[in-house]
Structure formats: structure tokens, C-alpha cells
Amino acid sequence: MKKIYLFASLLFACVSFGLTSCGDDELDSKSVFDGDKEQPKNELDKWLVKNYLTPFNIDFQYRYNDRLTDLIYNVVPANYDHSVALGIMFKHIWIEAYTEALGEEFLKKHSPRQIQLIGSREYGPNGSVILGTAEGGLKIMLYGVNEFDIDNPRINVDDPYEDAGLSPADLNHWMFHTVHHEFCHILTQLKEYSPEYKTISAGSYHSQDWINLKDKKVQEEGFVTAYGSSEYNEDFAELFSTYVTMSPEAWNMIMTNAGEKGAPLLQKKLDLMRKYFKEQWGLDMDEFRSIVLRRSSEIGTLDLRDLSKN
Question: How do 122-123 and 59-61 pair as beta strands?
Fold first, then answer.
């Protein structure tokens, strides 16, 4: 539909300004719409092949491709420098965290086949902000790539109630939490978690009004975040991604706020989750959290502009 609109605009231009200039020009055999033509390989492309595609079969896409995005949203491409920085950080915090905990074969076998970066965010009709999506265990889309400070990346692991709208953007909230959340969806699609988990908060989910709720409020009901209160699959993924990206002190803040009613529910969910990941994937969640937190603290030591050093 977009190409038809552009074509109609060009035709209107010919009618308005004279058919001679448009009709007599020789047509270039090279189409401006040739999106399938392979781009020349730059430094980042070569680095991504070496660090993502070859070892793990992960296609890390940073160039805008409208066939990979939802056309109902207006978004912008990811900046090159931000893509370089995220490629380095994801390798250190996400890929190497899982390989350290479970070995390279785990990620080779179960990782998403594609990660697509988008420069801006998507906003839902209900006012929600779409942080990321996972499609069929094959692709993870990440949004808002252009909104963090490359030279002073901020990763908040200690305050679960920090305002997510602060600038520069908190990478833990907008990126790393999101990729753990979406990867959790991929894993639970491959191996189902206990049906008992789904019964803990049955009848209490906020499928329609979760967008109007605050994390602190829903924690009293046994949900870790407002989005986690929308339905049980999101509940599971939000609990996992929150637990492994926040410090023990931050988790204690959540449990204290949850109080006498919410804390036992959260603990029961966490116990079932620990059992699931240990028995189904061989992953100790507490050991994994220690790895993620250590690697998060090391981001300040990385040169996020120089691929040759990473």
C-alpha cells in the first residue's frame, strides 16, 4: 500500500507539471525500491557475523526493514552508533550470561533466530509503550534503541520503583529486562511450565485495566509488575525478567511492599519458577542472577564505540 501511494504521488506530479519532463526521461534500470539488494558489509556487519551469526545463528538486524515491522506504527531506524553499543552490551550481558550459566550449546539450540532493533518506541492505542515482542520463538523486536547515552549507559538494578521516564533511558528497564522477558516466552513455548502456576492468581488478573495500575499496587495482589497482572504468561515472564535483572536488595523491596497478602503469592510463584528452570533447563535462577548483575556492573568498563575491543 505504501508503494502504491508513492506511485500515485509521482503520477500526480507528472500531470501537474507537464508530461514531457516525466515521460521523456530515460528510466534507470536500478529500482529505488530494491530492498532485497544486499548492502555492502561495514565494520558492524562483519562483527555481528563473527559474534552472533556464526557462533549462535542469531541474525542481529539493525537496519530498518519494513517487512519485519508492524506498519500500523510510525517508527524510525536504529542509529548506527547505538546499534554498535547495544550489540556489544547484549553480547556481554545476555549472550555471555547464558553461555556462562548453561554453555554455548544451549544458546545455539534455543536462542531466537533474529533480533531486530528499532530506533523509536511503539505506543499502543491504550497508551501503553511496547518494549519488545517475541514472535513464535524466532524473532525478538526491541524498540527505543536511540534513547540511551552511549558514553554513560545507565543500568538500574537497585530501585524497582524508579521512574522509567527518566533521561537518559535506563537500559535495564527498556532493553535487558525486555530481552529476558521475551526469551522467557520462547523457552516456555518450548517447554511448558507447571499448570499450578496458572492457578495461583486465577480470577485476579487485570486483562483490560492493567495499563491504569501501578507496580506497587499490584504487588499487593501477588504480581511483580502491572503488565505482569495482565495474564498468566506475562505474569511468568515478568517475574523471571524482574528477578534476574534486579539486585537481592531490590527484590526485598518488592516483597516488603507486597505485604502479608502479596508476598506469599509471589514467593509461591517464584518457587515454582525456580523448579521449572532447574528441572527443565538446568538453570539455577539465583546463580544466573549473580552472573547477570556482575556483567551489568561491568558495562562501564567496555568501550561501546570500538568493536575491535569487544
Answer: unpaired
First vs last C-alpha separation in the chain: 42
User: How sure is the predictor about 71, in pLDDT bands with cuts at 50, 70 and 90?
Assistant: low
Query: Model's pTM, two decimal places?
Result: 0.83
DSSP letter string over 21-49?
Answer: HHHHSPPPSS-TT-TTSPPPP-HHHHHHI
Sign of CA dihedral 201, 207, 208, 214: positive
Pick the range with the lowest mean pLDDT from 62-66, 161-165, 198-202, 207-211.
62-66
**Rounded Cα distance, 81 and 150, in Å:** 8
Are the C-beta atoms of 101 and 283 separated by less than 8 Å?
yes
Q: Confidence class of residue 167 from pLDDT cuts 50, 70 and 90? A: confident
